[in-house]
Specification:
The chain is α+β, with helices and mostly antiparallel strands. Strands 1, 2, 3, 4, 5, 6, 7, 8, 9, 10, 11, 12 and 13 form a 13-stranded antiparallel sheet that branches. An eleven-stranded mixed sheet has the order 15-14-24-23-22-16-21-20-17-19-18. Strand 23 and strand 24 form a beta hairpin. The protein is elongated and about 115 Å long.
Length: about 800
């Protein structure tokens, strides 16, 4: 048996060696990558004694922010730059790369599961595919910061780098950007995307155990490098480009910089629709050394100025004629530089800006280079080739944390901060729901609310501008993406029933004439937050009684009576928690009567709902609540019963949430016309409390209304809106848009997307991301027919 195991082990080892040889690059190609070792932790030993760490950071809506907000971000970014001292090197990398088509489909398309919903999934995938063609959705744009420092050992370097990373994360958080440290595998994958584009990296750290001679470079290097590739039409060779694998690459250097640059240079470069990598290397100069250097320069210039003036006077000429015009400007600029260094909290940095791109042919490469140069000419800047140094240039572009080129410019903090790495926020979370296209970049918006810290949401918009359609598109995505989740909809306007039924869900009509009943007394042992479910149920019954009494606040005595009557009502059920023992509203009413005179007012009010014409809630639940998709249609309840009906439905939903928590299942709740719950304090308090509890119990609540003013005028509703991690704003009136902008800190530029907006257009706020969107859904689809609520378009 042992002999057989050894034989299998040798066989597996041989297979590993063959697989590794297949993916390993030739030794000379790997040697061209200028780093020593990439640790699994993400720390890279670039050269003996130099270690680096890379962090990914998210974009910020810098271009859409109002001027004062841009100034704040600019000031905080300047503070970030001033954090660096001569011992810490900074490299900022903006990487644009094309993703594999199969990977893109996997990230965006809804899976086909072989059931009755496949036709809708296929139709939704066609819509997403068509929308993807409108933008640059085959490209992803990533932002990284690499820091490096000198240290004697890996362990000491790791401690210092992690401390520095924590400081930088705090500085970026103040700018609204989140950041995370990359692992070794993630850094290798990033490097692989530049050195071997359009291929998946086949590597595991376990592979290094197969051969002591192997390094991580062997698996990210291309098949070969040629630093002097031949011309296509002659035997001459290029000196300003190189060949790697089957591609031609080129690195350019930003040499000429305009005196007054705008802050969107990096934004313009990252908006190019082809693969490229921009690297910004920044090294701080010691403050005292910078001042002394500037003072020495000034002294030399003043000496030259004095000698020139004396020479002019000896020739009987005006003294100013002996001074070069350029020298006069240089003297003034140097004096200003010294003043900035000594008094205006400015530092001096050595800055190098590089950009790398590639093509399958020299012609394709030249066209991409032409477009890069044309783009920066808008800023009156100029990129120039780097002949004979493409190897060092290529390594300097890679996010390793070292600049191997001597090319640099000396810039103050304010001038360096012009290269702000923020443009426009994108929302593209693989496996999320399709929300439309980014109105600015034309890219797809995909969002997975399960990943948000606060997934509760609101959808707000004037009637006729796509509010209900947006909600039904959300429902469609939930049912297609996560069919194992539960979806429960409160539908006071009978708009969602067709869609729910088309997906195999159940519509439950709640009305005095309906044979369907739900029991407001339903409870389970998991109903409460603590060991006693009766406490929470008692709160619901107090609110129920208050609604029955037309919103009249209960006295302290009446609240105590409700609590005691609730305990009496559930005595039998708690002893034998079986469905047959579940009490009804009639049982609670009888126990109220037993409390005598103090309970008479409440009993009289409840009688209408127990023995009167509104006794629809006095029966045991007789509908199937097990379907994953439920729609409670309350349109026939009438205005007088809507609030109490919606609250009873919400209590049923709470029962479902508690059950699903035990099962480990998500519950999505959509409450349309939720302004009906804001009419009295009992409903408002109950809904607010349910919203707070739902998040802890794995439920995701979405509140929908066209009456935005009712939300803004209600303090609890405003708090709910402020606490939402997902807010979809469609067209708003000017006054409402202004108040929402103040409450949610929306800029003037962002606000224009919710004023006079087209149907299906608006602003999506997800956690800290604010993205303008447009969603024109094709009308020649079955899904559009199911989701459309416009009465004029009905046959």
């Amino acid at each position: 048996m042992l002999r057989g195991c050894a034989k299998q082990y040798k066989k597996d080892a041989a297979q590993n060696v063959q697989r590794i040889k297949k993916h390993r690059a030739p030794e000379k190609a790997a040697d061209c990558l200028q780093y020593e070792r990439m640790y699994e932790s993400g720390i890279c030993e670039v050269e003996p004694g130099l270690y680096s760490l890379t962090m990914a950071f998210t974009d910020v809506n810098f271009q859409l922010a109002r001027q004062e907000e841009q100034n704040v971000i600019f000031a905080k970014y300047s503070e970030f730059l001033n954090y660096f001292d001569p011992s810490l090197h900074l490299q900022i990398s903006l990487v644009t790369r094309r993703i594999d088509e199969e990977e893109f489909r996997e990230d965006t398309f809804f899976p086909l599961r072989g059931d009755g919903r496949d036709a809708y999934a296929a139709e939704m995938n066609r819509v997403i595919s068509e929308k993807a063609l409108q933008g640059q959705n085959g490209l992803i744009r990533e932002r990284y910061i690499t820091i490096s420092l000198q240290e004697e050992s890996y362990r000491r370097a790791q401690v210092r780098l992690i401390k520095r990373a924590e400081d930088i994360q705090s500085l970026f958080k103040r700018m609204g950007s989140s950041m995370r440290v990359l692992s070794g595998l993630e850094r290798l994958n990033l490097l692989h995307g530049i050195t071997i584009p359009n291929e998946v990296m086949p590597f595991s750290y376990d592979w290094l155990l197969a051969d002591d001679r192997l390094t991580t470079k062997d698996f990210i290097a291309p098949s070969g490098y040629d630093w002097k590739p031949e011309h296509d039409d002659s035997r001459a060779v290029y000196s300003d480009r190189y060949r790697f694998g089957e591609y031609y690459g080129k690195v350019l250097y930003l040499r000429d910089i305009a005196p007054q640059m705008r802050d969107n240079l990096l934004s313009l470069l990252s908006d190019l629709d082809f693969d490229n990598a921009v690297s910004l290397h920044v090294d701080a100069i010691d403050q005292q050394e910078a001042i002394q250097m500037a003072q020495r320069q000034l002294a030399f210039m003043l000496q030259e100025e004095s000698e020139g003036m004396n020479k002019a006077r000896r020739m009987n000429l005006p003294s100013y004629m002996g001074v070069r015009y350029e020298l006069t400007n240089q003297v003034e600029n140097t004096k200003e530089l010294i003043d900035n260094l000594m008094q205006n909290n400015q530092k001096l940095f050595k800055v190098c800006v590089l950009v790398h791109t590639y093509g399958k042919t020299n012609a394709e490469l030249d066209e991409r280079v032409r477009r890069i140069c044309s783009t920066v000419q808008q800023q009156t800047c100029r990129f120039t080739p780097i002949p004979f140094e493409q190897r060092d240039a290529m390594n300097s572009v890679l996010p390793l944390g070292k600049r191997w080129l001597a090319l640099e410019r000396s810039l103050l903090t304010a001038n360096t901060a012009i290269y702000v790495p923020f443009t426009t926020q994108e929302l593209f979370q693989p496996g999320g729901l399709y929300e439309g296209i980014n109105a600015r970049s034309k890219n797809l918006i995909l969002l997975n609310r399960k990943l948000l810290p606060a997934p509760a949401g609101m959808v707000l918009g004037m009637t006729g501008f796509g509010k209900s359609f947006a909600v039904m598109q959300m429902m469609t995505g939930i049912m297609l993406r996560w069919p194992e989740d539960d979806l429960v909809v409160i539908d006071p306007e009978a708009e969602y029933g067709r869609l729910i039924e088309a997906f195999g869900g159940e519509v439950i009509e709640i009305s005095p004439s309906s044979k369907a009943h739900i029991n407001p007394m339903d409870i389970s042992e998991d109903y409460g937050d603590d060991d006693s479910p009766i406490r929470l149920k008692s709160e619901f019954l107090r609110d129920f009684c208050q609604l029955a009494m037309n919103g009249t606040e209960l006295t302290g005595e009446e609240r105590s009576i409700v609590d005691y009557a609730a305990q009496l009502t559930y005595q039998k059920y708690l002893l034998h928690p079986e469905r047959e023992q579940m009490p009804s509203l009639h049982d609670f009413y009888e126990n109220l009567l037993l409390q005598g005179e103090p309970a008479n007012a409440m009993a009289r009010a409840l009688r209408l709902y127990v023995d009167g014409t509104m006794d629809l809630f006095a029966h045991q639940t007789n509908v199937d609540m097990s379907n994953h998709c439920l729609c409670f249609n309350t349109v026939k309840l009438g205005k007088s019963m809507q609030s109490i009906g919606m609250m009873t439905v919400l209590d049923q939903i709470w029962n479902r949430i508690t059950r699903n928590r035990v099962l480990g299942r998500r519950t999505w709740i959509i409450t349309d016309e939720f302004q009906l719950l804001l009419g009295n304090s009992a409903c408002t308090n109950y809904y607010f409390e349910l919203s707070s509890r739902a998040r802890k119990w794995g439920a995701i609540l979405t509140s929908v209304t066209q009456h935005v003013r009712s939300v803004l005028n209600n303090e609890d509703a405003r708090r709910m809106l402020s606490d939402c991690g997902y807010i979809k704003l469609l067209n708003q009136s000017a006054d409402d848009a202004n108040d929402i902008a103040q409450l949610l800190h929306i800029s003037d530029e962002e606000r224009r997307y919710i004023e006079n907006a087209d149907v299906g257009s608006g602003l999506l706020i997800a956690d800290k991301a604010v993205v303008p969107f447009h969603n024109a859904f094709p009308k020649n689809t079955e899904l559009f027919r199911l989701m459309d609520t416009n009465p004029e378009s009905k046959p």
